[in-house]
Specification:
By secondary structure, the chain is α/β, with parallel strands linked by helices. The chain has twelve helices and 43 strands. The structure holds uridine-diphosphate-N-acetylglucosamine and calcium ion. Calcium ion binds next to loops.
């Protein structure tokens, strides 16, 4: 069956398919260079851990390597920088303890990657490198029979990147580093073709050459191996691409902004293609690992963090932030801040509402203006329209919580719960001193401080009785006159 389906497609398509299978089948080891703080980031966080659309930069590179069909993935880290701890399962960390520079990084992983076969080397600071392009690189490397093959582009501002110097036959002669541009001849600075920092090497040839590379500006440059391999009569190939985002490297926070913007645009577009409307896409921040159903409209200034799930036909925003919450269908959330909670179909939230972790809002409920809810369940169809705080509360279905109701859920270091039954109507400014309960169909009087359970169907009223002092204003005026 399987060989039959491979035989059927047209020639060119079959060629492509076989090439893909070959790249996948060889499953080369991938080494990702990810050591060093990245001094130009001016940060206490190592460069490759800076988040891009909600994921550490280096995770994007790992994902690209996996999608290209990587076998073993080894990541070069510095001990104590905290990068090893952040690597996803299955990725091996190799510690770079000696020397500076990308050459030293690769040498540090020699034992972990081994000396045989094709070794793919990627830079941890190119988060948008695509899996397809990595597979293309391996294919070019294999079909050219080269000792080393690199990815290059002419479509990016070349400032600071290594420039590709080509020989007359089109093969790569060497790479001129321009991080320290002084002393680099103008004709080399004029070269637009740059090294993206993604390579395929024959490991058996790479490591001996690398050991012979000298220091420049105190660093051992990986790119120093190319002239040495050429001297040994080996071919250096390049795979030139027009995929600009794959080429974008991060050395500064300005670069980080550019990469974030490019990826953000890609993620938003993918949602849009699946049926989501963005009213002002440039102001929406949508991280990776967010699901949005069709016909949902995302307004201006909306932030959706990783892990958020939003159903169909919702109206989110303007200016709503959702962090890891599950939101059903047909929900409206205007000017709201929603953290780690569950919101059922048809719920209305905001404007100006704060839903904190552990909150469950059931079908058709309403959480209105200046309302904060924490670790509470709000029953189906229940309304909390204005100015309330419900913490550690369980509210039944069809209840109405009037304006300014507060649960006093915290006392002497302990949090206790408030239980409010189905169809309860509370008066404005009711305080519930937990632990306390209000039975189904009960009422509370305005301004009550409820400290005792209210039975089912009863009215709980707990406030000082009103006393009117007759003629009070007249007495005040008389006193002011006599005091002259
Ligand atoms: C490197 C290339 C340059 C290329 C550019 C593409 C070299 C000498 N130059 O320059 O030709 O155009 O990438 O972005 O390779 N790293 C380590 N250990 C180290 C130093 C760096 O693991 O000791 C890692 C970094 O975490 C980073 C990657 O290697 O992810 C690249 O290092 P970086 O210093 O940013 O190299 P560039 O100067 O950008
Ligand atoms: Ca870099």
């Amino acid at each position: 069956m399987r060989s039959g389906s491979l035989r059927r497609p047209a020639r060119v398509r079959r060629g492509e398919r076989l090439a893909t299978l070959r790249a996948m089948a060889s499953q080369p080891t991938v080494l990702i260079m990810a050591a060093g703080r990245g001094t130009r980031m001016h940060s206490s966080l190592p460069k490759v851990l800076h988040p891009v659309c909600g994921r550490p930069m280096v995770h994007w590179v790992i994902e690209a390597a996996r999608s290209a069909g990587a076998g073993r993935i080894v990541c070069v880290v510095r001990p104590g920088e905290g990068v090893a701890e952040q690597l996803p399962e299955g990725v091996v960390a190799a510690e770079q303890t000696d020397g500076e520079g990308t050459g030293s990084a690769v040498l540090a992983a020699r034992e972990a990657v081994g000396d045989a076969g094709t070794l793919v080397v990627l830079s941890g600071d190119h988060p948008l490198v695509s899996g397809e392009l990595i597979a293309d690189l391996v294919r070019t490397h294999e079909s050219d029979g080269a000792a080393a093959t690199m990815l290059t582009t002419e479509d990016l501002d070349p400032t600071g990147y290594g420039r590709i110097v080509r020989a007359a036959d089109g093969s790569v002669e060497r790479i001129v580093e321009t991080k320290h541009a002084d002393g680099v001849p103008p004709e080399e600075l004029a070269i637009r073709e740059i090294n993206i920092g993604a390579y395929a090497f024959e490991a058996a040839e790479l490591f001996p050459a690398l050991a012979a590379v000298g220091l420049e500006h105190g660093e051992r440059y990986l790119t120093g191996v190319f002239p040495l391999l050429r001297e040994r009569g080996r071919r250096i190939s390049a795979h030139r691409t027009t995929d600009v985002s794959s080429a974008m490297g991060v050395n500064t926070r300005a670069d980080l902004m550019a990469v974030q913007e490019a990826l953000q645009r890609r993620l938003v577009e993918a949602h849009a293609r699946r049926g989501v409307t963005f009213e002002q896409p440039a102001t929406a921040l949508v991280e990776a690992d967010v699901e949005i159903g069709r016909d949902t409209v995302i307004g201006p200034g909306v932030t959706l963090r990783s892990g958020t799930r939003i159903g169909e036909g919702c109206r989110i925003g303007p200016h709503t932030t959702v962090v890891g919450a599950r939101i059903g269908n047909g929900v409206t959330a205007i000017q709201a801040y929603i953290l780690d909670c569950e919101v059922a179909d048809g719920v209305t939230i905001g404007p100006f509402a704060y839903l904190r972790p552990g909150t469950v809002v059931r079908e058709g409920a309403k959480i209105g203006t200046y309302v904060e809810v924490k670790n509470s369940t709000i029953g189906a169809g229940t309304k909390v329209p204005h100015l309330s705080y419900l913490g550690d509360a369980d509210v039944g279905a069809g209840a109405n919580i009037a304006a300014g109701n507060i649960t006093a859920n915290y006392h002497a270091g302990r949090k206790t719960r408030t239980r409010i039954g189905d169809r309860v109507h509370t008066g404005v400014h009711t305080s519930f001193v937990a632990p306390v309960g209000v039975g189904d169909d009960a009422y509370t009087g305005a301004g009550s401080v409820i400290t005792e359970d209210v039975p089912r169907g009863a009215l709980g009223i707990a406030r000082a009785e009103q006393r009117n002092v007759e003629g009070y204003a007249e007495r005040i005026r008389a006193r002011e006159e006599s005091e002259g």
